[in-house]
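notes to self, project folder thing:

trying the whole complex as one job this time. last attempt i did each chain seperately and stitching them together was a nightmare. two parts in total, labels are on each line so i dont mix them up again. if this works i'll redo the older ones the same way
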Amino acid sequence: GESVGLHLPTLSVQEGDNSIINCAYSNSASDYFIWYKQESGKGPQFIIDIRSNMDKRQGQRVTVLLNKTVKHLSLQIAATQPGDSAVYFCAERPTGTASKLTFGTGTRLQVTL
Amino acid sequence: GAVVSQHPSWVICKSGTSVKIECRSLDFQATTMFWYRQFPKQSLMLMATSNEGSKATYEQGVEKDKFLINHASLTLSTLTVTSAHPEDSSFYICSAGRRDEQFFGPGTRLTVL
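result (full assembly):
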């Protein structure tokens, strides 16, 4: 469902290490999931998506894992770089909602040098 | 491809005035556009779904008479915040739908004094 948290959880990672950002989604009927990156003062930027008939999808330096049993989604970023610092949101699309998305709470990723 | 613009990128207005925000899909046609609001350190909250040539569909709790949406063409949707008050200050983000994907605009920062 929608998130109304006042504080974004923060993940601090050293440059070069791998990052894992987690997301719990709410609707077992969702069939499509997306990870977005949002830098300060900007709109969300698409990173990677996955459909419910898959459990893993890889992109360039990013991997998304989907566990439908526990309604859990994760984003793995390999060799994290300073430019990866941003807030990351997962979004789910319930089946039959004509591309309407529900966003998760978000996680702030801080990359330290 | 799939670029979405918003205008203005930021606006400051006095309490009681109305503000119009434009959302354009620059290189594709979008029969559906979405309007989100984002408060600091929070996630995106869907306000309404805008369909070309028909009335917008508002989410629960969003006042349709306060947030007027017009989707006059396949490349343009506008959001007008009427009689704006300081509590309307927020980051407003639009997205345009193409097939089952959403492409986000850069956002508009509204500050109501």
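what i see at first glance: The first strand of chain A starts at residue 10 and ends at 14.
need to look closer tmrw
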